[in-house]
Amino acid sequence: MTGLCIQWKSPFEPLVLGLCSEAEAWTYTPQNTLTIKGTYFCLQANELGQPAKLGVICSYTNSKWETISDSKMLLSSKLEDGSSVCLDIDSNNAIVTNTCKCLNRNSTCDPGSQWFKIIDSTRCTSATKSSVRINSIFSFMAKNMLAISSW
Q1: How far apart are CA 97 and CA 61, in angstroms?
Q2: Which residues belong to any copy of the Ricin B lectin domain (predicted)?
Q3: Which domains does the chain have, with CATH numbers?
Q4: What is the number of other CB atoms lying within 10 angstroms of the CB of residue 24?
Protein backbone atom coordinates (compact mmCIF):
# COMPACT_ATOMS: atom_id res chain seq x y z
CA MET A 1 0.00 0.00 0.00
CA THR A 2 1.22 3.49 -0.80
CA GLY A 3 -0.73 5.67 1.62
CA LEU A 4 -1.67 7.93 -1.29
CA CYS A 5 -5.10 9.37 -2.10
CA ILE A 6 -7.10 10.09 -5.24
CA GLN A 7 -6.53 13.65 -6.44
CA TRP A 8 -8.58 15.74 -8.84
CA LYS A 9 -6.55 18.57 -10.29
CA SER A 10 -8.81 19.85 -13.08
CA PRO A 11 -11.64 18.73 -15.35
CA PHE A 12 -9.11 18.34 -18.16
CA GLU A 13 -6.73 15.98 -16.35
CA PRO A 14 -7.21 12.39 -15.21
CA LEU A 15 -7.70 11.50 -11.57
CA VAL A 16 -4.34 10.51 -10.11
CA LEU A 17 -2.79 9.16 -6.93
CA GLY A 18 -1.02 11.79 -4.88
CA LEU A 19 -0.39 13.10 -1.41
CA CYS A 20 -3.45 12.90 0.82
CA SER A 21 -2.77 16.43 2.12
CA GLU A 22 -3.35 17.73 -1.43
CA ALA A 23 -6.41 15.59 -2.19
CA GLU A 24 -10.08 16.43 -1.90
CA ALA A 25 -12.11 14.60 0.72
CA TRP A 26 -14.46 11.96 -0.67
CA THR A 27 -17.73 10.61 0.70
CA TYR A 28 -18.93 7.02 0.30
CA THR A 29 -22.71 7.30 0.22
CA PRO A 30 -25.36 4.76 1.27
CA GLN A 31 -26.06 4.41 -2.49
CA ASN A 32 -22.47 3.13 -2.95
CA THR A 33 -21.28 6.21 -4.81
CA LEU A 34 -17.97 7.94 -4.18
CA THR A 35 -18.46 11.69 -4.34
CA ILE A 36 -16.11 14.59 -3.80
CA LYS A 37 -17.29 15.99 -0.48
CA GLY A 38 -19.35 19.15 -0.86
CA THR A 39 -19.97 18.63 -4.60
CA TYR A 40 -22.23 16.65 -6.90
CA PHE A 41 -19.26 14.98 -8.62
CA CYS A 42 -19.09 11.20 -8.36
CA LEU A 43 -16.50 8.68 -9.49
CA GLN A 44 -17.54 6.78 -12.62
CA ALA A 45 -16.16 3.82 -14.54
CA ASN A 46 -15.88 4.86 -18.17
CA GLU A 47 -14.76 1.77 -20.06
CA LEU A 48 -12.31 -1.06 -19.63
CA GLY A 49 -8.71 0.16 -19.64
CA GLN A 50 -9.72 3.82 -19.67
CA PRO A 51 -9.37 6.51 -16.99
CA ALA A 52 -12.07 6.69 -14.35
CA LYS A 53 -13.92 9.99 -14.58
CA LEU A 54 -16.07 12.35 -12.59
CA GLY A 55 -19.70 12.85 -13.49
CA VAL A 56 -22.84 14.37 -12.03
CA ILE A 57 -25.37 11.72 -13.03
CA CYS A 58 -24.64 9.27 -10.25
CA SER A 59 -27.60 6.87 -10.46
CA TYR A 60 -26.22 4.55 -13.16
CA THR A 61 -24.41 1.31 -12.31
CA ASN A 62 -21.06 2.74 -13.48
CA SER A 63 -21.26 5.16 -10.52
CA LYS A 64 -21.81 2.43 -7.90
CA TRP A 65 -18.70 1.07 -6.19
CA GLU A 66 -18.51 -1.97 -3.95
CA THR A 67 -15.61 -3.56 -2.12
CA ILE A 68 -15.00 -7.09 -3.33
CA SER A 69 -12.53 -9.92 -2.67
CA ASP A 70 -11.55 -11.42 0.66
CA SER A 71 -9.41 -8.38 1.44
CA LYS A 72 -12.27 -5.93 0.74
CA MET A 73 -9.65 -3.75 -0.93
CA LEU A 74 -10.82 -4.00 -4.53
CA LEU A 75 -13.37 -1.36 -5.56
CA SER A 76 -15.60 -2.72 -8.30
CA SER A 77 -18.21 -1.14 -10.56
CA LYS A 78 -20.25 -2.31 -13.55
CA LEU A 79 -19.99 -0.85 -17.04
CA GLU A 80 -23.04 -0.25 -19.26
CA ASP A 81 -22.55 -3.67 -20.87
CA GLY A 82 -22.76 -5.34 -17.43
CA SER A 83 -19.08 -6.26 -17.17
CA SER A 84 -17.33 -5.68 -13.86
CA VAL A 85 -14.22 -3.53 -13.56
CA CYS A 86 -12.00 -2.51 -10.66
CA LEU A 87 -10.18 0.71 -9.93
CA ASP A 88 -6.54 0.39 -10.90
CA ILE A 89 -3.43 2.55 -11.28
CA ASP A 90 -1.60 2.91 -14.58
CA SER A 91 2.12 3.62 -15.05
CA ASN A 92 1.51 7.39 -14.75
CA ASN A 93 -0.36 7.05 -11.42
CA ALA A 94 -3.66 7.78 -13.20
CA ILE A 95 -6.81 6.11 -11.90
CA VAL A 96 -8.14 3.69 -14.53
CA THR A 97 -10.59 0.79 -14.62
CA ASN A 98 -9.42 -2.70 -15.52
CA THR A 99 -10.49 -6.30 -15.15
CA CYS A 100 -10.42 -7.19 -11.45
CA LYS A 101 -7.24 -9.08 -10.50
CA CYS A 102 -6.69 -12.14 -8.33
CA LEU A 103 -10.30 -13.10 -7.65
CA ASN A 104 -9.47 -16.79 -8.14
CA ARG A 105 -7.01 -17.02 -5.20
CA ASN A 106 -3.99 -17.50 -7.47
CA SER A 107 -1.00 -17.22 -5.13
CA THR A 108 1.25 -15.84 -7.89
CA CYS A 109 -1.12 -13.00 -8.70
CA ASP A 110 -0.32 -9.45 -7.47
CA PRO A 111 -3.41 -7.26 -6.99
CA GLY A 112 -1.41 -4.39 -5.44
CA SER A 113 -2.22 -1.80 -8.13
CA GLN A 114 -5.93 -2.37 -7.43
CA TRP A 115 -5.84 -2.03 -3.65
CA PHE A 116 -7.94 0.88 -2.49
CA LYS A 117 -9.23 1.47 1.00
CA ILE A 118 -12.05 3.82 1.94
CA ILE A 119 -11.01 5.36 5.23
CA ASP A 120 -12.72 7.71 7.64
CA SER A 121 -10.96 11.04 7.95
CA THR A 122 -11.45 13.98 10.26
CA ARG A 123 -9.47 16.48 8.22
CA CYS A 124 -11.19 19.66 7.08
CA THR A 125 -12.19 20.10 3.48
CA SER A 126 -11.42 23.07 1.31
CA ALA A 127 -14.79 24.49 0.31
CA THR A 128 -13.09 27.31 -1.55
CA LYS A 129 -11.00 24.90 -3.59
CA SER A 130 -14.09 22.84 -4.48
CA SER A 131 -16.19 25.85 -5.41
CA VAL A 132 -13.41 27.22 -7.62
CA ARG A 133 -13.25 23.90 -9.44
CA ILE A 134 -17.02 23.76 -9.79
CA ASN A 135 -17.05 27.30 -11.14
CA SER A 136 -14.34 26.45 -13.64
CA ILE A 137 -16.37 23.48 -14.88
CA PHE A 138 -19.53 25.55 -15.18
CA SER A 139 -17.70 28.30 -17.06
CA PHE A 140 -16.12 25.66 -19.33
CA MET A 141 -19.56 24.16 -20.00
CA ALA A 142 -21.08 27.59 -20.63
CA LYS A 143 -18.34 28.47 -23.12
CA ASN A 144 -18.82 25.17 -24.93
CA MET A 145 -22.60 25.58 -24.96
CA LEU A 146 -22.23 29.08 -26.38
CA ALA A 147 -19.82 27.78 -29.00
CA ILE A 148 -22.22 24.98 -29.92
CA SER A 149 -25.28 27.24 -30.04
CA SER A 150 -23.50 29.82 -32.20
CA TRP A 151 -23.23 27.36 -35.09
Answers
A1: 14
A2: 2-101
A3: 5-149 (2.80.10.50)
A4: 20
